[in-house]
Amino acid sequence: MGHKVRPTSLRLGITRNWSSRWYANKRDFGALLVQDQRIRNFIKHEHFSAGIPEIEIERSGNQVTIHLHAARPGVVIGKRGAKVEQLREDLQHIIGKEADVRLNIVEVQNPDLNAQLLAENVSDQLRRRMPFRRVLKQMVRVTMESGAKGVKLMLSGRLGGAEIARTEQTSEGSIPLSTIRADVDYGFAEAKTTYGIIGVKAWVYRGEVMNQKKKGSGRHGVDAQARQA
Predict the structure, then answer these.
(1) pLDDT in tens, 55-95
(2) Which one, of 81, 82, 95, lies nearest residue 37 by Cα?
């Protein structure tokens, strides 16, 4: 199963959280879901240069909180917060006056280890007609040098202007897709070229998410302490 679904989907509720967190009745669910997608599309389109890999949306009552993760938060905030205030007004227009919009800008600590930013970087270079094999090798090397335990990149489409579409991939290190405790990030992007659309998939293994429970807790730990006493 780990090789058939997205790594983030397999780990939801365990080591990953949902990107949209709210509850709605059956009548309103579809409209709110479409609204979430409109919000994400608008932010990505208006602030693509900021490097935004993830947008989390929370709804509580008449309040909508948007957590915007950005590799370059200064591009979103602007001088004296002018851009972020304009963004808030634009989002308020999309959502409507019935809800109050709040923005939370979160800086991505290590952009080189983010799979979505990696996929978007590769697609941007393919749009500028860079040789795809050179792009793959270069981005894998940069990601591994940044501290990744493993990385895999996959391209699908008319690579290099070939008549027949094909799939090429390169990887380094390990990508334990079936290990739930493994922190495997996934990203997808599309490069629109003169020969057609090239799909870019990226997997980045950043290590294991260790159990935060203290050792010796629980019944067995208490029994051991009692025997020592």
Answers:
(1) 999 999 899 999 999 999 999 998 888 899 999 999 999 99
(2) 95
All structural domains of the chain: 9-107 (3.30.300.20), 111-208 (3.30.1140.32)
Instruction: Tell me if 32 sits within 8 A of 88, measured CB to CB.
Output: no
Q: Which of 171, 164, 162, 167 is nearest to 204 (CA)?
A: 171
CB 81 within 8 A of CB 25: no
Residue 203's CB is within 10 A of a number of other CB atoms, namely 23
Label the pairing between strands 63-70 and 54-60: antiparallel
User: How many other CB atoms are found less than 10 A from the CB of residue 146?
Assistant: 16
- CB atoms < 10 A from the CB of 130, how many? 13
Kindly provide the b/e burial profile for residues 175-191, where b requires at least 16 CB atoms within 10 angstroms of the residue's own CB: bbbeeeebbbbbbebeb
Question: Is there a contact between 53 and 114 (Cβ–Cβ < 8 Å)?
Answer: yes
Model pTM score = 0.85
Q: Look up residue 119 and give its two tokens.
A: 């996929």
